[in-house]
Recover the amino acids of this structure.
């Protein structure tokens, strides 16, 4: 699958938005700084192939319309599901007006890590781009909110409805 010459209206808007909001420029700068080879991809995307730095710890990641892969083009072309997932992230950069994507994404990753022990499973951005397409699994949540709520009640002396009802019945008996 080589780059198609015509972009859809949506792809054109995404490419223009990510150029204006500087996220694609940031991706190209990252490619230059890390000496990652870039080439034109389909749907107005740019592929950074054979990305070498250790961070981020991912087989693929996106900055604007630039998708970085740790592998070569043949591997990318054989994974249209992963391309669809990363393309979703390129669209999210446009929605977030560019670089605000970073703190929003990391906040969602922290929430997901806290809720499931995995940074992707409950991450809004990963779920929106397609968990399975990106190679993520949907993990069950860890029941931390109940424990946190109970701790907050003890600290703030908020009475639970069950406690209040039990106390009222005790007082009626007296």
């Amino acid at each position: 699958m080589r780059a198609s010459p015509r972009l859809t209206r949506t792809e054109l808007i995404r490419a223009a938005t990510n150029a204006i909001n500087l996220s694609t420029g940031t991706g190209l700068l990252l490619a230059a700084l890390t000496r990652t080879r870039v080439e034109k991809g389909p749907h107005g995307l740019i592929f950074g192939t054979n990305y070498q730095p250790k961070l981020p710890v991912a087989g693929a990641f996106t900055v604007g319309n630039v998708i970085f892969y740790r592998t070569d083009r043949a591997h990318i072309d054989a994974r249209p599901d992963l391309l669809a997932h990363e393309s979703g992230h390129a669209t999210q950069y446009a929605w977030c007006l560019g670089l605000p994507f970073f703190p929003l994404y990391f906040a969602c990753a922290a929430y997901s890590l806290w809720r499931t022990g995995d940074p992707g499973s409950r991450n809004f951005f990963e779920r929106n781009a397609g968990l399975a397409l990106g190679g993520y699994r949907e993990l069950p949540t860890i029941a931390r909110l109940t424990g946190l709520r109970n701790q907050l009640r003890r600290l703030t002396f908020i009475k639970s409805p069950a406690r209040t009802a039990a106390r009222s019945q005790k007082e009626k008996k007296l």
Notes: Residues 145 and 151 are 10 Å apart (CA to CA). Helices lie at 9-20, 23-33, 73-77, 80-95, 101-116, 124-129, 145-156, 161-173. The first strand starts at residue 37 and ends at 40. Strands lie at 37-40, 46-49, 60-63, 66-69.
